[in-house]
């Protein structure tokens, strides 16, 4: 077209019928160039790993700060991030149990009592940061505002691998004594089982990665600190983990009121893994089919079944008695 060649960026292409056309200025060529390697997850601002890294760095900075400094409390809990325990009784019980907390938050203007004094003293003795925060920050963490001016931040639990439990038993030169939980969703049951396993010489507990209670602050508190001394592993597929243990010489025993073997007849002196199901659903079908035998506990009274954690404690106590003899 007439006058088109005088436009900025216009070029002449020979052999075309349209005459002069405008070029892209190299934009299309640059768009086809590679952008380099993908940065690590921690360096991508919208990735969960980046948020966790920033939170860990902030907690480390808070531990180095002077106590009593005012700070802001996160308003939402990340499933993979730290957990917050609210209320004076839960907080002091967690500190008594030795839960590895990272920060103790005290609302400004909170009335002092024995529980608050003990919480502050125990946090100070354990080297936990003690931070004074606005009451409105704790209100955002509690649906009903019943935090009583006190909150404790607990870091996410570091789970072991199921193979680590077998390695621990071998390092102690003892027959493996393990517990697997199937469909246990109450963290108090999980904490009670962990406490029983630690009390009767067990080497670890394995839980499914999905549809299972996790080692939360409630489980920590119920375990009375045993979660700090006993390994808890997470299995992507519980059935596959049990079969792998079978290939390593471990006998898999499921607990059920209608079992084919009673506790009185069971020999627990060899490597054993006890599988505990929920009170309502019991053992899932695939897990039940994987077990070498199903064990029942003889009842002397008119009770059909026991709580999952109580049943696990009874069986573990009997196995420990057999091994002492």
Amino-to-carboxy terminus distance: 104 Å
Series of secondary-structure elements, N-terminal to C-terminal: EEHHEHEHEHEHEHEHEHEEEHEH
What Rg, in angstroms, do the CA atoms define?
29 Å
Instruction: Extract low-pLDDT stretches.
Output: 63-71
How many DSSP helices? 11
Query: What general form does the structure show?
Result: globular
Beta-strand share of residues: 15-25%
Number of strands: 13
Helical amount among residues, as a percent range?
A: 25-40%
Structural class: alpha/beta
In what order do the strands lie side by side in the largest sheet? 9-8-7-12-10-13-11
Major beta-sheet overview: 7 strands, parallel
What is the residue-averaged pLDDT? 80
Give the tags.
single chain, 325 residues, alpha/beta, seven-stranded parallel beta sheet, four-stranded mixed beta sheet, 11 helices, 13 strands
What does this structure look like?
The chain has 325 residues and is of the alpha/beta class. It is 34% helix and 17% strand. The chain is built from eleven helices and 13 strands. The strands form three sheets. Strands 9-8-7-12-10-13-11 form a seven-stranded parallel sheet, sandwiched between helices. It has a four-stranded mixed sheet with strand order 3-6-4-5, sandwiched between helices. Helix 4 links the parallel strand 4 (103-107) and strand 5 (129-133). Helix 3 (88-96) packs parallel to helix 4 (114-125). The model is unreliable at 63-71 (pLDDT under 50).
